[in-house]
Amino acid sequence: MPGILEDFQALLLRRAAEFRDAHTAVVDDWAAFSAAVGVGWAAAFHCGTVGCEAEIKKDTAATPRCVPLAAPEESGQCVRCGLPGDYGRRVLFGRAY
């Protein structure tokens, strides 16, 4: 039985990772961001300010989910306000239901 449970866990993990990857878009502009969070997640640069985060949430219902530490270091402009990104990599945004 332990082997069956381990195999099933591996299957569920693989399916979840495939779903996540298929529904995560790397975006650099507001239109693409809005479309991406409407159907999944968006990886975008964010300035880190509370006001900008509040505007994103107000307009799309999306909030930052995490800053993936394993993601490559990058720099760019905030997808919403155009200020420099504050985290040195893209932030994952999504909507909660």
Mind explaining what this structure looks like?
The chain has helices spanning 2-22, 30-39, 50-60; strands at 24-26, 41-44, 62-66, 91-95. By secondary structure, the protein is of the alpha+beta class. It has a 4-stranded mixed beta sheet.
Architecture blueprint of SSEs:
Layout: H1 2-22, E1 24-26, H2 30-39, E2 41-44, H3 50-60, E3 62-66, E4 91-95
Strand % is 15-25%
Helix and strand sequence: HEHEHEE
Q: Can you count the helices?
A: 3
Estimated helix fraction = 40-55%
Main beta sheet: 4 strands, mixed
Averaged pLDDT, please?
96
Order of neighbouring strands in the sheet with most strands: 1-2-4-3
- Nearest-angstrom radius of gyration? 16 Å
Could you name the key traits of this structure?
97 residues; alpha+beta; 3 helices; elongated
Could you write a compact summary of the structure shown?
With 97 residues, the chain is an alpha+beta fold.
